[in-house]
Amino acid sequence: MSQGKNFSSWRIGFAYAGIIVGAGFSTGQEVLQFFASHGLVSILGIIVAALILMFAGRQAAKLGFRLNAESHETPLRVLFGPKVGLVVDYALIFFLYGIAVVMIAGSGATFNQSFGIHPQLGVIIIIAFAGLTLLLDFNKIISIIGGITPLLIIAVIIITGYNILNPVVPYSEVDDFADLTRTPSNFWWFDAITYAGLALATAFSFLSIMGSEASRHVIARRGAIYGGLIIMLLMLLVNVGVLSIMPEANTVPLPAMTMADQIAP
Question: Where are the annotated coiled coils located (predicted)?
């Protein structure tokens, strides 16, 4: 693959990862509830979820490219038919609305714990920035999200790396603090599949349009795979980082901030 095509694929990959990594991920709560609360076996869960996201993301981007989709509606109607596709479309819109509310609320809590700003003011700030971003065209949005993601990776490596090397409890004792009451189910593999479905629903619209915007089929396809690899790296780092601060992670609203406080209290 030429350098230009490879750059385009990585640009899409970083944007895909940025879409998945929302406020719930950055607070550490998503990783805690879906994975870390299962103990060390959560590492296998993350690998399963990432493989699903790589394959499903690749297929969604490929379908968007082939259909030259201008929105997620076209792929849905091809996959499910006009009537069922319309029902799935409305369900997806309702689902995305709920995800947006959760992410905005998580951002408000992050502003409060990080800077002492009232959560409602933090929410207003995030909504304002999100509104300004949505005024841009799709390619610029991809560039912005893709540009932020490398910075996020660096921050995650620094914060989790310190905690991984300086765990509060030995990793051999982590399973003693596993709290299955915090998980969606008692089965790590089921929660991994659930998380993958949650993440894919969040990114499906983006993946469909991203595929149609790509200049070549291979760019869209590889971009989704690269994005899945980035997501797996970030999730593994945050997961092991959360495990390193057990059992405190089970008692705080923002485990990621607790990890950051270990570096600079």
Answer: none
Q: Is the distance from CB of 160 to CB of 240 less than 8 angstroms?
A: yes
Which CATH number is 3-260 given? Answer: 1.10.4160.10
Q: Any residues with CB less than 8 A from the CB of 88 and at least 6 apart, and which?
A: 76, 80
What pLDDT digit, counting tens, does each position of 17-64 carry? 888 876 556 678 889 999 999 999 999 999 999 999 999 888 888 888
Q: For residue 182, what is the DSSP state?
A: G
Please give the DSSP secondary-structure letter assigned to residue 136: S
Backbone angles phi, psi at 183, to 5 degrees: -95, 155
Helix (H) or strand (E) holding 94: helix 82-115
For the chain, the structural domain boundaries read: 3-260
pTM of the model: 0.85
Distance CA 256, CA 254 (A): 5
Tokens of 73: 């509606």
